């Protein structure tokens, strides 16, 4: 109810245009002029008629600041006058038409706005049929159709460019939102990934030469600096990613990813240094002609992220496996790896269990954005991605139908 009330109290539905105090003053002056003209044209009149005139003028002035409350008050005044009075004066008879024009020009829904005019005409015609026609009724009807119809026509002409401006702003905001998500994903998939790989390589070099007293301090200093840079960037990316969520990525506007073969080779080397093993099956299926080029690019991004995760989170002496399958209509992939306790093999495998596992050591290498970015890419292609952890293994499975994106 509070949301409906707030909507009814809005002066406009547009975000690109707002009424000014000069416009409110102009509407109040017009309302006063119409009221005085109507009183002068039909004087003398009963006290009820004068009251209806004043209420109609006040309602028209009010509708500039509060369109719907003013329109409802003015229409109620006109309807009451039609039923009670013998001859309805110019005001409030014309008020529903003018209020409808304001509602239309302010971007409110046309159907309820025009219903005020339709209901006024229905009451007026019914009253003529029941109580007999008089010249005043026909004069009011003609004036309403001429002046009120003209006001509504002008309102429609005003509404058209305002609607176009509103659509342009909405399109611009959607474009900026897609670009923001694209920047977050691209930075994570390139800069953060490469910096993390540099840290892991430095740790591997330090462990490979434990007796080199001159090399160890240099590597430690470099690793600390890179870790700090990675954490700062991850914090910025998390802040950017949390502004809004659930939007689709622009699946075409991305740079070429790093070759998947190179990512797999580096991951195999890193895993081999801690006694782990990486198995890959079905890699050749990424080259089948049925996969559109833009879709293939995004699949390489997703698979590269999964392989990088396995290189960071596979337990020593563990096993990692990537399996890719396709039936010609879709592509399915499964990435799974053994996970273990944090802190194994010194600082090389400082990551804990797996992404999103909640183990403290995990945050040293991950912001949680990688899998979320992969999920968005897969869903943008019309597919689905699921993650599960159990019995010492972390498994990610995704499927992308080619028909949904062809």
TrEMBL record:
<dbReference type="InterPro" id="IPR050482">
    <property type="entry name" value="Sensor_HK_TwoCompSys"/>
</dbReference>
<feature type="transmembrane region" description="Helical">
    <location>
        <begin position="136"/>
        <end position="158"/>
    </location>
</feature>
<feature type="transmembrane region" description="Helical">
    <location>
        <begin position="21"/>
        <end position="41"/>
    </location>
</feature>
<protein>
    <recommendedName>
        <fullName>histidine kinase</fullName>
        <ecNumber>2.7.13.3</ecNumber>
    </recommendedName>
</protein>
<keyword id="KW-0418">Kinase</keyword>
<keyword id="KW-0808">Transferase</keyword>
<keyword id="KW-0472">Membrane</keyword>
<dbReference type="InterPro" id="IPR003594">
    <property type="entry name" value="HATPase_dom"/>
</dbReference>
<dbReference type="GO" id="GO:0016301">
    <property type="term" value="F:kinase activity"/>
</dbReference>
<feature type="transmembrane region" description="Helical">
    <location>
        <begin position="112"/>
        <end position="130"/>
    </location>
</feature>
<keyword id="KW-0902">Two-component regulatory system</keyword>
<keyword id="KW-0812">Transmembrane</keyword>
<dbReference type="Pfam" id="PF02518">
    <property type="entry name" value="HATPase_c"/>
</dbReference>
<feature type="transmembrane region" description="Helical">
    <location>
        <begin position="88"/>
        <end position="105"/>
    </location>
</feature>
<dbReference type="InterPro" id="IPR036890">
    <property type="entry name" value="HATPase_C_sf"/>
</dbReference>
<keyword id="KW-1133">Transmembrane helix</keyword>
<feature type="domain" description="Histidine kinase/HSP90-like ATPase">
    <location>
        <begin position="295"/>
        <end position="398"/>
    </location>
</feature>
